């Protein structure tokens, strides 16, 4: 699954990278030819710039730029530099980062070693003049030293361009960008630079950040990557809506992953990590996940199942329901005979495989019919239709009923286009479980095409009858004949051949959906393949730091799994970490904290934990123990924030303390509260010792 994911991402970025490579090669061709044409000379004053719009999924940009850098280094130029705004606060750091990365992008290992020695021996003054000089020296050395037979094509090695990728163009300082563009445009004839702007929002940001005088120095071309939703649909289509990988997600788990994607980050990488986490949790928590593999391997493993694993099969809820539906003799055999159970498990897994094959074929076919309906009652993407089918019986949903009504109102051309797409879906499948369905769809296509010839014949017949009917008659007989024709049409109300055929097609699609789009929970042994622990997945992915911190401090056994830390509710184990003891003692205070009692209680618990005699403890050790709760306020954010609310003092006192007016603050606070406020606010006050005394 991991290799398939990587291959899929490469295919999705291939078109974008190919168009970028073509743009870079065309834009640099003028510099390579050294043309004296006036138009080429004007173009040489403009910096070729690719505005790459990647979308708001910023977490995926690093992977995209990493793969883009590899592609450019292999196909266009070895000099590819990537910069981020956080590393370039001013022009000095900008040129420093650019130069340092360029020094590492030499053509071969020997020149790289020599250049590194030169860089270490001599301090470089970072400027565009020094970069231009360095570039000319490096390119001349490579042209002279490399033999002709071993030289790469001139489009790549003869004065190769320097590609500068600005990963987060919106975050760069406007002045730094403007100065760099103006300076580099003056050295473009000796330092061939190509810019790639990584844009997350909109291409308009280029003109917002750069005035016309600066943007006119750029020859900008826009490139748009695949949208996040289309990327997600493709990933689901290749990883989940296929029989290649037996592992599946339940409706709630898939809803958790898609909600995090759609409402939090739009990150495909995070979605894939969530999918990997689901796979890991399934194989960790489900004992029968050993059968979650391809069908031949699963059948082989069933023969080696132990007695405990056979009992696990009998405990599955879906298998229990299956046993209850069988005859009494077969029930006894399934519950007592291990060999018969293994044979039945093999057949059930084979039926589950056939179920998935038919399910995904009919799902794709139904998607072809409903994806272009008005208002998209079953969704525009196959992901939405798949979630609907997992959630409930699609035949009982209102959206499905409205989709069938809309299908009964479509024209012949639209139905024929949908039938052709559906026929391609069944033909592209290597499985033969639904071979009759493909033939039936082909028959519908032939019948719709035959309607055209019949319609032409009917038109000819009507034209002949009209010509025959155009005989001389009086007004009375004409009105009488028209009324008779009108009454005959009302009495008959017959459907046309097209309407009858359209109704048959809709009924056929409805029968396919009702027969094959069943809930996975209805299939025996579906727990082997489906991961359904949505709550566990939500706990891992939807992090709640404050709740996790409270749980760790209040119940350290939850994370440490140490039996010595297990305690009853309301008790404080004396072997718990010191910060946990301080926190639990702090929770016993409702509103106000008495520092003396808090410190004394902490010292009592700690000395009991270490089995020390209270009388034998020295004053220095006891003072150090008593001071720990005050230090824990600064170590633990939960105690820090709750202490601010537990210390009850007027607002004017806190405002005076913020201004540094210590005397005004001292008037409204007692000594203990004032000391803890000084510690919490972390104010370095020289006269603090006087107040502590």
Protein described:
Residues 35-39, 107-122, 144-157, 462-470, 638-662 and 664-693 have low confidence and may be disordered. With 693 residues, this protein is mostly helical. The chain has 35 helices and seven strands. Helix 8 (174-186) links the parallel strand 3 and strand 4 (193-199). A five-stranded parallel sheet has the order 2-3-4-1-5, with helices on both faces. 65% of the residues lie in helices and 5% in strands. Helix 12 runs parallel beside helix 25 (534-541), helix 18 (338-370) runs antiparallel to helix 21 and helix 28 (578-587) crosses helix 29.
Point out poorly predicted stretches.
35-39, 107-122, 144-157, 462-470, 638-662, 664-693
Count helical runs: 35
Mean pLDDT: 79
Q: Based on DSSP secondary structure assignment, what is the total number of beta strands?
A: 7
Trace the largest sheet across and list its strands.
2-3-4-1-5
By secondary-structure content and strand pairing, the structural class works out as mainly alpha
Biggest β-sheet description:
5 strands, parallel
Overall geometric form: extended
Approximately what portion of the residues adopt beta-strand conformation?
under 5%
Range of helix content: 55-70%
**How widely separated are the two ends?**
67 Å
Rg, rounded, reads: 38 Å
Sum this structure up briefly:
The protein has 693 residues and is mainly alpha-helical. The protein is built from 35 helices and seven strands. The longest helix has 35 residues, at 435-469.
